[in-house]
Known about the structure:
This protein is an alpha/beta fold. It has helices at residues 27-39, 58-72, 94-107, 121-133, 151-163, 178-195, 206-209, 216-219, 239-251; strands spanning 4-6, 9-11, 17-22, 44-48, 77-80, 112-116, 137-144, 168-173, 200-204, 223-227, 237-238. The relative contact order is 0.14.
Amino acid sequence: MKTVEVRGMKIGEGIPKICVSVMGIARPDIRLKTKEVVDHHTDIVEWRGDWYCDILKEEKVLSVLPEIREIIGDKPLLFTFRSADEGGEQVIHIKDYVELCNTIIESGYVDIIDVELYTGDHQVQEIVEKAHAHNVKVMISNHDFQNTPDKDEIVRRLCKMQELGADLVKIAVMPKNKRDVLTLLAAEEEMLANHAKCPMCAISMGRLGAVTRACGEIFGSDLTFGSVGKLSAPGQIKIEELREIMECLHSVSE
Length: 254
């Protein structure tokens, strides 16, 4: 499996990297939250663009991005517009989604862009090609806030992401019981053992799935999401506690 290097950070090597989301409706909120996240020493900063009220106004987006970059310095920046269908804050037309992704890629401020798997194969490939031409990594993702698909379906989706050119793959699912959590972990382990060509993030959400956010080094996740203040998804763990748990697991001797 290949690692992904972003601003000197290798994702897919050692302890999983922690990403924390910046969520703000207006520019002052975004600046304040970005400073708060940086103060908590996250590895990667995610700007959740779907929270921003002016996200579809190109000139507004291009004025916010340099402010975020100035605050976070040389930390990797991940941009995500999470659609309403996958748990996000806004509905967006596919054409507008592709145009937004292109604007973000061409801005030069972002290191990784999240692209939802079910945007459409053609559109995803178009974004991937544009991103790679501008030296931006692509994390193809899928989020199910209702259910946990069976193991084979989770593996199929992750493999599909790789086929579409992902540099990183991500899936997040909602468990209804403990067995669903085991299904996610089994799929993650199978992916790592038999199919993985790039780093992976596999999460079972909510309280039941919280354990999956911390045990990635054992089962195959190279990236996880922690919280500073407001949660961007159910079941997130505070960044300090998450880092402590992962470091404890990492330090256990054979």
